[in-house]
């Protein structure tokens, strides 16, 4: 609970009743100082506030339907784009401090691929990681939870909105987001929230489909765009928070995804 706050009033949270220490809480309630209550089901709290709009709700339903087969679907990207997406995700480790505790939030955690990549890169150091993942799709969160249990990774998962995350200000060393912002209804609000929860000196790392200028002008790029128009997206630089520092834009995944990194 230390990392979190009520998404409605921003007050501190606690469990509504006592549970045996060390037990995984499959169902229950979280309550804040003002009495707002949030349900825990299947070990995952739902803390969505306010209600999502119709556009975002449509994407949630789509991801819920895809959840069980999503990892197999992503494997088609490896062959199609000529990449190893899991190896590419491991590059987020370049933004992890060499020593000391690391608090990481994955916004739109999906089926947990970013944390699996961190596990691959830091498997002998996972004790220094404090991991949290947020997603609007409960279907995706169920798959992620199952995957983390198999790998024996401890991750705090929450069903909540990127536009109003239930996390404290200035908390995380690294805030990740991969593969969703192109479809967000409010990109500016999403980036503001990522920046808000990053601690001073922390980093926000955002990537999504978007061809590099070189690939965009090539025959290969034109073929990619015919198949999936989302690859025509460009980095949403106009929405980067004004206080952000050291903004860097690079292209990863063989020039098919943009990546924005900025500090606080």
Short précis:
With 264 residues, this protein is an alpha/beta fold.
> Termini distance?
23 Å
User: Would you identify the CATH architecture?
Assistant: 3-Layer(aba) Sandwich
Task: Fill in the CATH topology.
Answer: Rossmann fold
CATH class: Alpha Beta
- How many alpha or pi helices? 8
Report the principal-axis shape: globular
How is the main sheet built?
A: 7 strands, mixed
Runs with pLDDT <50, length 5+? Answer: none
Count of domain modules: 1
Q: How would you write the strand order of the largest sheet? A: 7-6-5-8-9-11-10
CATH level-4 homologous superfamily: Vaccinia Virus protein VP39
Number of strand segments: 11
* Mean of residue pLDDT values: 96
Describe the model:
The protein has 264 residues and is α/β, with parallel strands linked by helices. The protein has a single domain (45-263), classed as Rossmann fold (3-Layer(aba) Sandwich). The protein contains eight helices and eleven strands. The strands form two sheets. Strands 7-6-5-8-9-11-10 form a seven-stranded mixed β-sheet. The chain has a four-stranded antiparallel β-sheet with strand order 1-2-3-4, covered by helices on one side. The longest helix has 14 residues, at 138-151. It is globular, with a radius of gyration of 18 Å. It starts with 12 loop residues before the first strand and ends with a strand.
